[in-house]
Specification:
Layout (H helix, E strand, L loop, with lengths): L3 H12 L21 E3 L4 E3 L1 H8 L4 E6 L4 H14 L7 E4 L7 H12 L7 H4 L8 H12 L5 E3 L4 H9 L12 H14 L9 H21 L4 E6 H4 L5 H7 L6 E8 L11 E5 L7 H7 L1
Parallel strand pairs: 3-6, 3-7, 4-5, 4-6, 7-8
Antiparallel strand pairs: 1-2, 1-8
Helix pairs in contact: 3-6, 7-9, 8-9, 9-11
Length: 292
């Protein structure tokens, strides 16, 4: 007993999860589903600890976000911290990083590990303005201080330009299905408020699917277990990266968690789990586009 007791206490301490962050977004604070975590395969509601147990066995963990919701970024950081109590993280992949940034990311991570963090971290990373640093910064700072590599998962800008100049043919029996392309095309039209010229649709669809293919390739090549943080459409089982993992015959098990604002529908066809958060104030982006 004298030998086992310290070990039991140590294991108990290691298994405790970090406290959940407080909600930041203003909308939906009174919604019945606020904070609910649902296993879409069974319809069962889970505790945060049960979710972590379910996710810990995944070789590929795909987490979908709404880019402008601060609660999603806080929960992503919480997941990274919580999963460490259940497994050794192999790598973290980010949609927000491109191949051109990887060397700078590696250098910044090494400097942070040596106790010499860059004074201007977003500058050192050549962080892109399209991803607001005030939202992503705390997560990135945490991840770079960890022992696992932080890796890019997006296309370089020159690759995107090449797709616009010459639309490539997507290879893949699953990701290349007509219904997948039709659904993505409809989403692109809707996200551009119906104002996108038809002539641009083939290239924009190709960029979306080539980004998904790149994320799948990066997952397959990354040290496992790995986590991918990306927009919710990229990680959807019916439209995104999981289809490309199937086409690539990637070994290992995948799990999809979508972080969604209360009231947003998420189905079993799209994900394995959904975690409902409050939402941001509604804005009429289409009206803003029309005014421009």
């Amino acid at each position: 007993m004298r030998i086992l007791l310290p070990l039991i206490l140590l294991l108990s301490a290691c298994s405790s999860l970090p406290p959940l962050p407080e909600w930041q977004s203003p909308e939906g604070r009174e919604h019945a589903d606020l904070g609910a975590i649902v296993d879409l395969r069974s319809g069962e509601r889970l505790t945060a600890e049960q979710l972590v147990e379910q996710l810990a066995s995944a070789d590929y963990l795909l987490v979908g976000e709404r880019h402008d919701n601060p609660d999603h970024h806080l929960l992503q950081q919480w997941l990274l911290q919580a999963l460490v109590t259940r497994r050794a993280q192999g790598s973290l992949l980010l949609e927000m990083l491109t191949p051109d940034q990887q060397r700078a990311v590696g250098q910044a991570q090494e400097s942070i590990r040596l106790g010499q963090p860059p004074q201007d971290l977003p500058g050192a990373l050549a962080w892109q303005r399209g991803w607001p640093w005030e939202l992503y910064g705390p997560l990135i700072e945490y991840a770079l201080a960890q022992p696992y590599p932080v890796m890019h998962a997006n296309l370089a800008s020159k690759e995107v330009s090449a797709i616009y100049q010459r639309v490539p043919q997507l290879s893949g029996a699953v990701s290349g299905r007509a219904d997948v392309g039709d659904a993505l095309r409809a989403q692109i039209v809707e996200s551009h408020c119906g104002m996108l010229p038809d002539s641009q649709l083939p290239a924009m669809l190709a960029v979306q699917q080539q980004r998904d293919r790149r994320m799948a390739e990066r997952l397959q090549a990354a040290p496992v277990p790995t986590m991918l943080l990306a927009g919710a459409f990229h990680v959807r089982r019916d439209l995104g990266v999981p289809l490309h993992l199937l086409d690539l015959a990637a070994p290992g098990a995948s799990r999809v968690l979508i972080l969604a604002e209360v009231g947003d529908p998420v189905t079993l066809q799209q994900a394995d789990f959904v975690w409902f958060t409050p939402g941001q104030l509604a804005q009429d982006y289409c009206e803003q586009l029309r005014r421009r």
